[in-house]
Specification:
alpha/beta, Rossmann fold, 2 domains, 11 helices, 19 strands, zinc
Length: 350
């Protein structure tokens, strides 16, 4: 095997370079994965262009799939050539949350793409315990979207799932939002409403089975949701956009004793007017935070997600807006940051 590979390396916020680097050396419990597809997460734009990674230089990218190229001497549960994706959070296995099987809440975790080198590269090193085998029905592009599918599923499960017939509003139709729409439908939701400001995304949401789509630039979201729920508000609200506007709306469109699930990060202070804040206690709302997803033996949302993708219940491919060669990644993120392109899920390939 060759000793060098091409990768996108972040040296500072906004300084992403496509260059030749050493192929990672694996340990006895690791595998070396040949990356076939790597997707952009919503957090990648902020991480690459504004905040930076936790260490420099660092190869970003944590949503990916590929084929095992090499295995460590103790990584015997997989073999060279296996098609896999991987959970990017590497738990410490020592803190109270890890011992409870809640790996997403680990207090001393490592993370591919921000604390360790990630998958915007030809190869990535991964602990074998983090691997998830891809069914034959799931291709590499779809496999690279397992992470957002799991994030959407985890958010819904945090609030106890969906009861048949419940009304659900999803604020934001990025990949997580669109996948959430499909999950709640699969769980038996009644009326599902999707809200966004990009008409092309709402069109895809309609094609995926969403009952009502609201363009927030053309309609009053609160009025429209109340109209669609006969003045009561939604039983379940999921905020996935990370916008201060949608975070306020999430509380205003919820019916009494509704469940409000917050997944999106706003990257700025969220100030709630009294009218909005009082809805929490006057309506006895249940507000849930949800972060990442879980991969423990007790609650493996990754295996569930790939099974539902394999069955066709969860469709990932319609969410892909662009396919880009890895060598063009720096220019692509610059265009995204400058607002020069409308995108949903971008799949990068070496």
């Amino acid at each position: 095997m060759k000793e060098k590979m091409m990768a996108a390396v972040l040296y500072a916020p906004g300084d992403l370079r496509y260059e030749e680097v050493e192929i990672p050396k694996i340990g006895p419990n690791d595998v070396l994965l040949k990356v076939k597809a790597a997707g952009n997460c919503g957090s990648d734009l902020q991480r690459i262009m504004v905040e930076g990674t936790h260490v420099f230089p660092c190869i970003p990218g944590h949503e990916f799939s590929g084929e095992i190229a090499k295995i460590g001497e103790k990584a015997t549960s997989f073999k060279v050539g296996d098609r896999v994706t991987a959970y990017p959070l590497i738990p410490c296995m020592r803190c109270e949350w890890c011992l409870q099987g809640q790996y997403n809440l680990c207090e001393d975790y490592d993370y591919l793409g921000s604390r360790s080198h990630g998958a915007f590269a030809e190869y990535v090193k991964i602990p074998v315990v983090n691997l998830v085998r891809l069914p034959k029905e799931v291709d590499f592009d779809e496999g690279a979207m397992t992470d957002p599918a799991c994030v959407a599923l985890h958010g819904i499960k945090r609030a106890g799932g969906i009861k048949p017939g419940q009304s659900v509003v999803i604020l934001g139709t990025g990949p997580i939002g669109m996948l959430a729409c499909q999950w709640v439908k699969a769980m038996g939701a009644g009326k599902v409403v999707a809200v966004d400001i990009v008409e092309d995304k709402l069109k895809i949401a309609r094609e995926l089975g969403v009952d009502v789509c609201i363009n927030a630039e053309k309609e009053d979201v609160v009025e429209k949701v109340m109209e669609e729920t006969k003045g009561k508000g939604a039983d379940v609200v999921m905020e996935t956009a990370g916008s201060t506007a949608t975070q306020r709306q999430s509380l205003l469109i919820a019916r009494k004793r509704a469940k409000v699930i917050l997944i999106g990060r706003s990257y700025s202070d969220v100030l709630l007017p009294d009218e909005v804040f009082t809805r929490i206690f006057r309506g006895e709302l249940e507000v849930y935070g949800a972060v990442n997803s879980n991969f423990s033996p007790l609650d493996n949302e990754w295996k569930i997600s790939v099974q539902f993708m394999a069955s066709g219940v969860i469709k990932a491919k319609p969410l892909i807006s662009h396919r880009v060669k890895l060598k063009d990644i720096a220019e692509t993120f610059k265009s995204m940051y400058e607002g020069k392109m409308i995108y949903n899920k971008i799949i990068f390939s070496p």
